[in-house]
Amino acid sequence: MSSSSTPQVITCKAAVAWGAGEPLVMEEVEVSPPHHSEIRIQVVSTSLCRSDLVAWESQTIFPRVFGHEASGIVESVGEGVTEFKEGDHVLAVFIGECMTCRLCKSGKTNICQALGLERKGVMHSDQKTRFSIKGKPVYHYCAVSSFSEYTVVHSGCAVKVSPNAPLERICLLSCGVAAGLGAAWNVADVSEGSTVVIFGLGTVGLSVAQGAKVRGASRIIGVDSNPQKCEKAKAFGITEVVNPNSCEEPIAQVIKRITDGGADFSFECIGDTDMITTALQSCCDGWGLTVTLGVPKVKPEMSAHYGLLLMGRTLKGSLYGGWKPKSDLPSLVEKYVNKEIKIDDYVTHDLPFDDINKAFNLMREGKCLRCVIHMPR
């Protein structure tokens, strides 16, 4: 498409979810041209994140195109977009950075007032969808909806990256790997020689481990009940693994016993609010810091005895590891290109788009870290 032509509706293939837990169906969808401040992306690679699985199993907005870890190439740009041009390589991200709101300008957070979490399945600008089937709307997910050959995102939810970086791998930086590294570096600021405990050894937990190892943590304890995950963990920096199913005492007591009173840092990477309390209990008095990263499938409310905080512990939430997408992601991609961080090791399966339901099954059965889904080119 030449830069002077007007973008038209594109008909392409998308994996559409029609109901909670139902297998995705390959459908012909119409993808609208990008509106003001939007870009349309040809998706190259997308990976399945546990958040997609949780939403697919539990949410009520359907039909829907899931997917939010994605890399691609800009196909067309909407009115008012000057940052991107056709052919740019980009990462699509589930949180935006408008760079002008109070929060963006504060330097204190990566939360954006204008482009916060999208929950209703529609675009920020007009509360409508850009996907349809025979004139009927198909809803978005997490401002990205990458389980489609083409998607439309707000330009604030995309990051231009080096064309030298392999799109089939850096898609993992759109969520999981970046979230874990950032939790260790930006949110917790893990210190050299410290003791770290990580609850949940999926992609996010193992990315926390990688980040803690880079920072020089002396002991990185992984907690997970899946023996398959435990076997792979040490390659990412985990120094020892505890399986709660093999313990005769509560896991928090085990951690406190083997760390002489508790870890310096604990990370909840499961999405279980009861586990947040356990992670707090596993921290030491005085300065123990717990960071929660998981998205709960049920019971979003949490409870903990006030005494845990009274004794000097801190609980912090982490969204996307504190990274500001536009400001920070290009340098993270550069770290990967320079072999300063690992990404490839998290990819356990490469699958064609037509096998996307296999990816969901593998994750549901705990048999993968990241499945990268490749679009036909």
From TrEMBL:
Q: Which Gene3D superfamilies match?
A: Medium-chain alcohol dehydrogenases, catalytic domain (3.90.180.10), NAD(P)-binding Rossmann-like Domain (3.40.50.720)
Q: What class of enzyme is it?
A: oxidoreductase
Q: Which UniProt keywords apply?
A: Metal-binding, NAD, Oxidoreductase, Zinc
Tell me which cofactor or cofactors this protein depends on. Answer: Zn(2+)
**InterPro entries from the xrefs?**
ADH-like_C, ADH-like_N, ADH_Zn_CS, ER, GroES-like_sf, NAD(P)-bd_dom_sf
Which GO terms of type biological process are on file?
Answer: formaldehyde catabolic process
Q: Which SMART domains match?
A: PKS_ER (SM00829)
Any single GO molecular-function term of the entry would be: alcohol dehydrogenase (NAD+) activity
> Enoyl reductase (ER) domain: which residues?
19-373
Q: What is its EC number?
A: 1.1.1.1
One Pfam family here: ADH_zinc_N
User: What Gene Ontology terms describe where this protein resides (cellular component)?
Assistant: cytosol
Q: Which reaction does it catalyse?
A: a primary alcohol + NAD(+) = an aldehyde + NADH + H(+); a secondary alcohol + NAD(+) = a ketone + NADH + H(+)
Coiled-coil intervals = none
Q: Which family does it belong to?
A: Belongs to the zinc-containing alcohol dehydrogenase family. Class-III subfamily.
- Quaternary state and interactors: Homodimer.
What protein name is recorded for this chain?
Answer: alcohol dehydrogenase
